[in-house]
Each structure stands twice: as C-alpha cells, then as structure tokens.
Amino acid sequence: MSDPATVTPAEVRRLCRLNEFRQPTTASYSHGYVQANLIILPEKHAQDFRNLCLRNPVSCPLIGEMRPGDPKVPEHLAADCDIRTDLPRYNVCKDGKLVETKTDIIEEWKEDSVAFLIGCSYSFEAALSDKNLKPRHTELKRNVPMYRTSVPLMAAGVFSGRMIVSMRPYPTESLEAVREITRPYIRAHGEPVAWGTKGARTLGIEDPDGDHPDFGDPTEIREGEIPVYWGCGVTPQQVVIDSGIEGVVVSHAPGHMLVLDQLVKAVCTSE
Amino acid sequence: MSDPATVTPAEVRRLCRLNEFRQPTTASYSHGYVQANLIILPEKHAQDFRNLCLRNPVSCPLIGEMRPGDPKVPEHLAADCDIRTDLPRYNVCKDGKLVETKTDIIEEWKEDSVAFLIGCSYSFEAALSDKNLKPRHTELKRNVPMYRTSVPLMAAGVFSGRMIVSMRPYPTESLEAVREITRPYIRAHGEPVAWGTKGARTLGIEDPDGDHPDFGDPTEIREGEIPVYWGCGVTPQQVVIDSGIEGVVVSHAPGHMLVLDQLVKAVCTSE
C-alpha cells in the first residue's frame, strides 16, 4: 500500500471487506477524512440510544444513523459501504459481555439491527498536530489515557451512566490555543470539558498525574504541563454494555474505525 | 380578557407591547403554545453561548436565535414580534449584576445585541397535568423548587458552571410514567436527569426533602413519593451572569416568558 495518509477511504474499506486490512485505522490513514465510532444495537433500544446522543452530544456526537435491518451506510457518508464488513475489526457483546472480536459481523447482523456512527477525537488530534501541539500519546506511540469520572450522563430511557474522558497533557500557556483549535469540532467532542488539578477534582478523577488511567495507556505529564480532559467515545460504548440490554451489541474494536468519504471539516466542525 | 388558556399568543404579545400585560405568562396562558426563555448578550460572546447550548442541550435547549442587532423574532416562531417589547417583564444585568426589572428594553438594545430563545419546562408540565400527574408546585400555587448541583456543564469558551435542576415529587410507582411522558420534550429539558435519594446524591444535592431549595419555593414530598429532577432553564441564565462578561445581559423575568405562535408539539418534541 502507498503512503497511508493518501490512501482513499474507499480503498481502506475495500481492503477491510477483503480481510486484507486488519490494523487500526487511526495510524494516519486517509488524512483529513472522518473516522467514525460504531455502535449497533437492537431496534427496541434505538430511540433511547438516539436520545442518549441528543442529550449528551459532547460524549456521544451522533454523525449518522442507519435504518433498522439495513447494513448500507448512507451514500453521502460512504459510497457502496456495508457496515457488516467494511471496518477492520469489531467487538461483539452478548447480554452485556464482550464475547468475540471479529473482522466481519455478517452472522451477528439481524433484521432489527440498527447502526449508529459517532464522531471521534481522532478528528481533532490531526488539527492539534498540524499546529505543533501533537498529543503526547501520539508522540509516545501509545493509546490515549482515559478515565471514568463522577459526572452523570443525562439519563435516556434504559441508558444512564457516567462520563468517560480522555486526557492529553499540555503546557499551561498552550491551554487557550488548544481550546480554540478543538472548539469547532463540535461533532468530534469539541473543546475540553475541564483541565488542571481543579478540573480533575470537578470530574472526580483521582489520578491527575496520568499514571493510572482506567482505559488506554499511562502518559507523561512534564514540568509546566497540566492534564486537559475531553469527552470520549468510549462513554456510549460503556453505557450500552453496562446497561446489560439483552441481545447482541456490536462496536468497532478500539482504534479500528469506519473511514468515511466526508472530510472532517465538513462533518465534524461548526465552521 | 377571556379565559387565559384560550387567549392567542399574538394577543398576549400585543398586550405586553402596550404594557397592559405584566403578570407571569406561566399562569396557563395560551394553552399548548411554546413559552420560551430569553437571553440577550453582546455578539462578541454569541458563538460561545451557542456552543454552550449545543454542548448542554438538556440544560440549554436552543429553540431559536436572532441576527445581531435585529430585534425581530423569526416570523415562523412568532409573527410581527419585537423581542424588546413583547415579553411582560425583563431582568437587566450589567457587568454580571442584576440592576433593573423593566417592561421593555428599548434603551438596553444595542447594535451588537443577540437574542436567544430557550425551551422551558412549562411545556412538559402541561403534558403531566393532562395525564393526572400535576406537578406539586402547580397544585400548591408556588414556584418550582430549584437546586444547584455539583454536575459541571460542558465548558464553552468564556462560559462554564454547574447544572441547576428543578424538582417535582412523584410517587415511586409513577416514575416510569413521568419519564415516558416528558421524554419526547427534547427541546424542553426532556425526561428527568435523576431521581430518588440516590439521584440526589449523584447530583450533589443535600436537601432531598424539598425544604430548602436554592431558588424558587419549598415543596411537599408526601409519603411514598421521591424527588424527581429535571434540567432547568435557570442554568444558562446563571452561567451567563456568573461569567461576569462585560456589558448588558437581558433575560426574561422568572415566569414572564415569550409566548410563541408554535405549538409545543411542533417545536419541543421529537415525535
């Protein structure tokens, strides 16, 4: 394959369908294009999940939704795209427990399956890197550290829970630039929700040093830097799993997302 | 005036303009029509306020927004409506402090004034009453009790703060009905965010008995009832005032709202 950054979204999806692409899409594939989180659940709970997204758009920025039983992604988001095969890797949960990781979900797809596409922080990380504010975990080639918080989500039917946030350290003097750069990415978690030790306290996080995240990898907070916290797409996944709804729930495997034909600027920003 | 419930929104607004209507609109005027909260602030902070609403739609459900310096409400929301005169009563804040309560704001309106209309819980209270679940404060002819919480809003530029919630007691066995009835009112705070003593703890409320609210009036929680908490439109007002932004900020006086020509069902629900 040529330079990952210039591979088209359609080519990534084609290779996924052939099972020839199994790595994380987040490793700089298709620069500038939207990568979306995926959640598939039974139609019975679709309205509650839609409301969860509408009521908690910072944690759950809804980009698109598909018709019950229809595995075809809306054409304007991704041409000729089958949600059952065109991601590199899927997590399959049954009755609230992760049971399998697979490269397609033909078997799991049902007549009442509804797929939701959710915005992802990868979209604003590229913007930060472009402005010489590369996220630390990217520099360290690790996963972003993520934390459970004490902040309740706005309940929606069967779904409720607490926010999960991602954390990226930045020098105090860069905070306003980091806020400004990420602010327009309203359908990709947008600007930070809190920062610094005071922010960590507000969120109920007991590890402001980045050493013991609840998910992802530890990071390094260097001299003069503060932790900066953003909404995180693991929140809706965790909420749906924790709700213990009956039946099959499928999500993308972490980092193995759906690459859309739309540019981040067109879908995720308010500009 | 004839039966308040059947007075048209246009008639309420006409009488406001003539200073012949100075009472709260919430006393059953124009049954079925949207009553909107109002916030007017300088254009400089309009984008941040818009983001505050988009990021916190349960506390700040945005119904409409006007062009900078234009006092005319969009025709589809209210015909021939001037935002400076057509509410019964306004609160005027300067540099973060309430300085005056007035029946028009012709003097306060500037070239850079931007008006925002926000959904209001009065919209779903009628639905509850229609189903024999009349809110207690309505029965007692008091103001709804409201509480400051420890739940942080999703920060947006100069605006940040904590959620304020309203509380209505209901019998435990009515909880699911109350949730279902209010759930569709997505642009009027929607379904409750928490309930019961556990919910009060999650929100950081130390008065689950309803005796000492932070705003509004005390209420009665009777045998077998639990407190039920909803998002509340006082939140954005308080956030804007607490932010201490320079210049004039105007809001409706509590209960003295703008009555729109649109039906609640058309504007505030997702049905």
Automatic annotation (TrEMBL), chains A, B:
InterPro entries on file: D-Glu_cyclase (IPR009906), Putative_hydro-lyase (IPR038021), UPF0317 (IPR016938)
SUPFAM superfamilies: PSTPO5379-like
Identification of the protein by name: Hydro-lyase
One Pfam match: D-Glu_cyclase
Keywords per UniProt: Lyase
Highest taxon above the source species: Eukaryota
PANTHER family according to UniProt: D-GLUTAMATE CYCLASE, MITOCHONDRIAL
Record's keyword annotation contains Lyase: yes
Keyword Lyase: yes
Similarity comment text for this entry: Belongs to the D-glutamate cyclase family.
